[in-house]
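I had to read the description of the data format several times before I understood it. The format is easy to grasp once an entry is in front of the reader. For illustration, here is how one protein appears when written out as sequence plus structure tokens:
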Amino acid sequence: RLDRKSGLFLPVPMRREDGALLREAVDIRQDARGALWAVSSPALLRFDAQAEAFRPVEDAWASAGKATFTGMFCDRDGALWLLTEAGGLARLDPVSGAWETHLPTACVYAALRDRDGVLWAATGHGLARLREDDGTRRFEVFTHNPLVADSISQNETISLFQDASGIVWVGTYGAGLNKMIPGARVFRSYR
């Protein structure tokens, strides 16, 4: 944090549940309620303004399948989506404390909630789109099919962006950029 008097940045302590000091923050986000969150590869932390320190969320690592955290996405409903390396996505409702896991074996590199309210995840297994029907959540995964010319160019999707016209762009590892054709289940690739 910035000390406004001195103009210097001061360290903010981050500790695991066992008290060990953490030295990395792979992602920092503020949720819709104003709470500040951070993830370190083995821990989810919430900022405690009174103590001026990040405190671990109990059992977060175990609830997320004991996977390494690689990032985080704060959803507009207040939920936190934790991106993991080989453990998929873990969703935490900070109010109720309820956890859900999705795409349990996938490495998740990025997440994006588009203008239409659809949640996308760039994974090592393809591009995943969240379907929310009758209170249940499940992901549909778009994968590369060499026999289908307008499938996504590769399964290793690593980045996501929605442009001003609403098109969702998907970056891949080694097979260029893809755009999903709006209203369709097809892609156009740029290599």
Summary: The chain has a mean pLDDT of 92. Residues 149 and 187 are 9 Å apart (CA to CA). The first helix runs from residue 60 to 63.
